[in-house]
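We both want to read discrete structure tokens more fluently, so let's practise on a single case. Would you supply a protein for us yourself, any chain you care to pick? Would you write everything just below, so we can both look at the same thing?
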Amino acid sequence: MRILTRYFASEIIRATLFVLLAFLALFAFFDLIGELQAVGTRGYRLEHAFIYVLFNVPGYAYELMPTATLIGTIYVLAMFAARSEFTIMRASGLSNRQAAGLLLRIGVLFALLTFVIGEYLSPAASEFAEKLKLSAKGASLSQEFRSGLWAKDVIRANGVTGDIVGSRFLNAREIKPNGELIGLRIYEFDRAFHMTADIVAERATWGGDHAWKLQNVTESRFPPDAKRGNTGLLDITAAVVTTKMAERPLVSEITPGILAVLFADPDRMSASGLAAYTRHLAENNQSTERYEIAYWRKLIYPFAVFVMMAVALPFAYLHVRSGGISAKIFVGIMIGVSFQLVNSLFAHIGLLKSWPPFATAVAPSVLFLLAAVFALQWVEKR
């Protein structure tokens, strides 16, 4: 069995990597064609387009790994069936359970590779690609919004660890690719949503450890007495204390990473990043469904490799008269495309219908696994 496992593994790994490289080359080519339209815009040159496309390749590798595994496994099993090798293996005592276990052990490698790419390589590469593109064009992240970027944060009594004593809303006119905020305005409120401060800063730079450094600051504070309902307009105006400072620290749970999430595709984010941002949204009483679904999809997606290999297993029982190798590969491509479509469809429907995030993420894999079991039983009866 050890020799048989090595034989299967070497053939499936070679076929899967070949299919994956072919898909990546195709997607990279189409991406490059699309980027050529932007070449020459400000400082965006051809070399920037090549680098941008190159650093988007890990994201495609993550998305296409289950499909590539499916097609590669189908090709190898179809070749074994065409050469009657699989028939000889079955005659030698290879049961269906042993064949499934053999593919399961091989699938561990692809599942781990998918997890590493999706958790570490793809998020970092995608973030670098977007920052490179923005830097080359001289653009900022928030230029897509007419009023700039808005974010909500809580105010704690002792930095970021104490009790919540209020909330703040931040508005930045621009966010530079390095995380610097330009044209920042902050509105602070107490627990009763009475306004306590209006802070305007020319720019803000990240200092680490939940601390921002505000520059050229104008801070207007409203004393508690000025917030009473019977206070007149003249009294409120007289009670406001305005202070101008060259620099001022701001302790906040909002980090450049959290701000970048607002413009990032959740499917290209890491599971740890999604978990952190989901917690931030929950603490600020904001909707978390979209990111919870993306989080569970990120955790479950590597296991789709096992599902795709289970779907490929029935093809080993089909004789050549049931269709040539090319026909089986075509069917495999259609199944892989269908899985991607169903996966995306369930994510959108789950968000619209407020389905449980875990069920939304796991349902496509369960459906295709059940289909694989049914197909295996069907080919056995034939």
Observations:
- The mean pLDDT is 86.
